[in-house]
Amino acid sequence: MARSLVAGVLVLGLVGGLPAPAYGAANWAPANDLEGACVTLKTSNRYVFKDSVGYGFTSTASSAEKFRFEATQLGRYQVRDSTGAPIYQSVLGWVWAGSEYGDRADWTVSAADGQYRLVSTATGQQMGNYLGGLGAGGSTFVLTPATGCASIPDIATGVSGTPAAGVDAQGRLVGWIDAHAHITAAEAFGGSLHCGDAYAAGGAPVALKGCASHATLGWGALLEAIIAGTDPISSAEDGWPTFGDWPQHDTMLHEASYFRSLERAWQSGQRVLNVLLVANRVICGLTAEHTSCDEMDQIRAQSTYLRKMQDYVDARSGGPGRGWFRLATTPEQVRQIAAQGKLAVTIGVENSEIFGCREVKGVPQCTTADIDAGLDELESMGVSGFYPVHKFDNAFGGTRFDEGVTGAAVNVGNLISTGHWWQATSCTGPSDNEQPLVSDDIAKLLALGISLPAGTVLPVYPSGKICNTRGLTELGTYLVEAMMARGMIIHLDHMGVKTASAVLDLAERAGYPGVTSVHTWSDPSMVNRLLGLGGFVASYAFSATDDGQGTGTFLDEWRTHRALANGSKITGYGVGTDVNGLGTQAAPRLNAGSSPLTYPFTAVNGTTVTRQVYGTRTFDLNTDGVAQYGLYADWVTDLINQAGSDGPLLRSQLLSGAEAYTVMWERARA
User: What is the residue range of the signal peptide feature (predicted)?
Assistant: First the structure.
């Protein structure tokens, strides 16, 4: 290597923090450490400069164009010139300035011996000197640190300071857990129900761009109006950078867990995020555009999405393994990740037809061999546990009913999935949610254009407390015993009380602690029994006090669980946000005006937190509620503030939540 080239390599390694490729590298290797780099490009003693059409070459260093690199995936980048324009490979061969990110604005970058090469990810053409200008010319470049680059359009977390350690001196996790979240919803339900992504090549302007299908009178706007009561007539759908239409606390079909918001929550004390891959064949079929509606296909797609998300966070953090978002497939890995001060992301599944195990008019559509193969596949994905029963009755047991108009809609889905309505009987003691005496809520759906099979007779249910007549089936027993044998976590929520009680009977006989209720969808008597087993409980992330939405409050439910016979066994308590899960988030407290959360505030782990800003919109828990996931940093602090004399105990139990969940998982696997 020439002396001048060696000197250039040393300069790259020392000036402006830009790392140098390894000297003497035998092969070209992905350049994973250019995120945020501001550089000039030089090839054959000539610098790239910006001319009137595209980019040319000059021997004058002072005229060199300044380029900013933004990672789009490991070893890939979007490259912006000094005006912020992304450069792209044109169909005519030259590299030109574009207006927004696209496939041709993505560059795969590799390095060797102090040189870099940039190859169009879409076309495979290597950047270089093309007919006197910058284009598909096959050159290599020296990258020299510079100043004066455009900034990357991004979202700041609003968190500063040094956080407390993620584990204590005894190795116990210190931090809160979200035990129920759906950050992979962009790939759920066939891939088009949801607008927006948790991450995207091209960053926030791409991931959080509005969707035409969800704008005024689009099919997405109409569907959200049916399930969430939003206004389909006034749906501006302006995402980045104004966010006037979404995210809001009550929108259900738009992204609310962009990775920078997850980062804010982690920086403010979250230590475990349990991501539930979610699927529903019937809902998928309602969308105008979709990929496969097979629920296992949807789960596979989300598993891939989640792993690519870890790679993306690594890419935006400087290279493989450097990101704060780490997938954990064992409790040992959770502890290792927390000890590094990072966020441990565990994986679960929530769907109604797991392994294709529907029942149609009482006849199961799967076998024990299907169950065994399905469990093998889930374990290969790193899944720690799942819901044997979700919204519909299936081959394993009966569901816990939704209520009101939502219940009517889900009941229609049950009819489509199984060939029958929910079947209920009057009962005493633990019960499922009541249904209307007459089918008035179903009639409301029919008025909105929801069609039923010809000849369908609408159901009428008993008044008062009712229970699903379907309990745990023979296949359901086989599944639960197989899950216990593998140390998998059994999610009890969504099971009708008859099914849930039978599952708990099996767990009690086996002394099996791996049972959870993590988002307020189980009868308190079932919660008491699972606590007796050493199971784990979390509450839906309702507002701390009344928010006027007709829901419960987090504090009331936490106190109710503490008052159960086995409530003293709660050592750590969890949060279940259900973010992106077709459920609303907490609205602003009704008393937020008189008792507001004050900004900036000190988070539970000691960091300082200001309001989070998306583009031109500033979020405030007092006026927005939990409009997007970053506000859970605010919500946790507000929750403790609103707990009064119970505040110290609540804080202790929330910060012990990640540890309690991990201990439960360890004992289940033991």
Answer: 1-24
DSSP assigned state of 21:
P
Note whether residue 350 is domain-resident.
yes
Predicted confidence (pLDDT) per residue in 28-58, tens digit = 999 999 999 999 999 988 999 999 889 999 9
Contact 263/204 with Cβ under 8 angstroms?
Answer: no
Measured CA to CA, the distance from residue 544 to residue 641 in angstroms comes to: 9
Contact predicate 553/542, CB 8 Å: yes
Helix (H) or strand (E) holding 133: strand 133-135
Do 380 and 349 lie in a common domain? yes
Domain range for 235 is 199-241
Query: Rounded distance, CA 517 to CA 337, Å?
Result: 24
Residue 161: inside a domain: no
Neighbours of 271 (CB within 10 A): 27
Beta bridge partners of 383: 347
Same domain, 236 and 260: no
Whether residue 508 sits in one domain with residue 561: yes
Give first-to-last CA distance, the chain, whole Å.
Answer: 57
Number of domains in the chain: 4
**Domain end among 448, 469, 490:** 469
Which of 320, 281, 318, 315 lies closest to 298, judged by CA? 281
Q: What pTM does this model have?
A: 0.93
Domain assignment present for residue 169? The answer is no
Cβ 214 vs Cβ 220: under 8 Å? yes
Of the candidates 152, 163, 246, 247, which has an alpha carbon nearest to the alpha carbon of residue 204?
152
Same domain, 88 and 237: no
Query: What CATH code is carried by the domain that includes residue 66?
Result: 2.80.10.50
Reported as a single tens digit per residue, the pLDDT across 98-150 is 999 999 999 999 999 999 999 999 999 999 999 999 999 999 999 999 999 99
CA proximity to 349, closest of 392, 293, 312, 303? 303
CATH number assigned to the domain comprising residue 654: 3.20.20.140
CA distances from 484 to 268, 345, 474 (A): 34, 22, 16
Q: Is residue 578 a contact partner of residue 256, using CB atoms and an 8 Å limit?
A: no
Together in a domain, 130 and 104: yes
23 pLDDT above the threshold of 70: no
Task: Encode burial over 559-569: b for 16+ CB neighbours within 10 A, e otherwise.
Answer: eebeebebbeb
Name the band, by pLDDT with cuts 50, 70 and 90, for residue 223.
Answer: confident
DSSP 305-320: HHHHHHHHHHHHHTST
Residue with tokens 């496939």: 103
Rounded CA-CA distance 136/119 in Å is 9
Q: Which residue, of 241, 264, 295, is where some domain finishes?
A: 241
Same domain, 38 and 138: yes
For the record, the structure tokens of 569 come out as 């066994």
Helices (H) and strands (E) in the chain, counts: 18, 31
CB–CB of 559/647 below 8 Å?
A: no
Based on the domain organization, do 130 and 44 belong to the same domain? yes
How far apart CA 132 and CA 578 sit, in angstroms, is 55
- As a whole number of angstroms, the distance between CA 393 and CA 400 comes to 9
236 plus 262 within the same structural domain: no
Please state, for a pLDDT cut of 70, what percent of the chain lies above it. 93
- Mean pLDDT of all residues belonging to the chain: 92
Residue 244 DSSP SS3: coil
